[in-house]
Amino acid sequence: xxxxxxxxxxxxxxxxxxxxxxxxxxxxxxxxxxxxxxxxxxxxxxxxxxxxxxxxxxxxxxxxxxxxxxxxxxxxxxxxxxxxxxxxxxxxxxxxxxxxxxxxxxxxxxxxxxxxxxxxxxxxxxxxxxxxxxxxxxxxxxxxxxxxxxxxxxxxxxxxxxxxxxxxxxxxxxxxxxxxxxxxxxxxxxxxxxxxxxxxxxxxxxxxxxxxxxxxxxxxxxxxxxxxxxxxxxxxxxxxxxxxxxxxxxxxxxxxxxxxxxxxxxxxxxxxxxxxxxxxxxxxxxxxxxxxxxxxxxxxxxxxxxxxxxxxxxxxxxxxxxxxxxxxxxxxxxxxxxxxxxxxxxxxxxxxxxxxxxxxxxxxxxxxxxxxxxxxxxxxxxxxxxxxxxxxx
Length: 393
Description:
Elements: H1 8-25, H2 29-36, H3 41-68, H4 73-93, H5 99-122, H6 130-158, H7 161-181, H8 192-196, H9 204-224, H10 230-237, H11 242-270, H12 275-293, H13 299-316, H14 319-327, H15 333-361, H16 364-389
Helix pairs in contact: 1-6, 1-7, 2-3, 3-5, 3-15, 4-5, 4-7, 5-15, 6-11, 6-14, 9-14, 9-15, 9-16, 11-13, 12-13, 12-14, 12-16, 14-15
InterPro entries: MFS, MFS_dom, MFS_trans_sf, MFS_Transporters
Domain Major facilitator superfamily (MFS) profile: 7-390
Keywords: Cell membrane, Membrane, Transmembrane, Transmembrane helix, Transport
């Protein structure tokens, strides 16, 4: 009897389910704490920062779990999902202050573990190349985001509790999918004895490249997080409504869903460019997008900038874990996929706070200039490090 193992179709299904569920909750977190629970925006910001730290801790722990005990990765994943599902279930009945903040913390900690183990399992799937696997994962996640954010408005009009109920149902279904279908891929167990003996280490030259890419990812997420925080205030100061700001994220979702297959066909199948060059192009688009913000004073300019930044997102976000997968060895897949999640979460945690400090002490133009410099310098850093350390990749 053939040993059961995770198939790409079920990995994509699980990614879609959890993306829809998460997208029901994160758009309302700040609004719920401020408008429903009566907490200040500062308090909400602190809660979000602490939750980012919980996500980082979970991501690191998930990577370590996978590397140390990959045979039982499915069990660890089930445990992490159970923690998140339990937290969301309790939110249905206990959603006052400060219980809401505590349960949200547990949800994010479990989510951090689950995301990293899920990405680590993806590295063992050989039905497609790692480039294709992570592109497809990213695509399904964003389809889930589009559907989830569209459902939020409908559910809130019924009752805020329906957000928590729906989230619980989806997470419980995700737990079932993992229990039924998420068996560790055979490729993830190859050379296990070598990995256990510590003889399967990532070459130092590749570690340098991975480190540079992680720094770039931190810079990109630091800049991108401005769109989810300080840019809303900036647009409002220019007389652009909150509704119009929210519509930018609808545009973001549809550009990803429609644009990613086209870009992948062009760059991967027709031009066949290397992953690392795809990363360079994506980060350059982020720099260009923030450069256009220096001149954006009306809504059409913000739409144009969002489209440019979204194209950069399409090229960089799925490419980074794929490049890291290609450069890391079997015994350290979890370690480096965990690092990808950690550096991304660090950028999202520090970005809004750093952006707020820059705006309070200077101006929005200074914020955009700093982000351009940060992403531009780290892009050049990756190019230089990769040039010296990558030979055949």
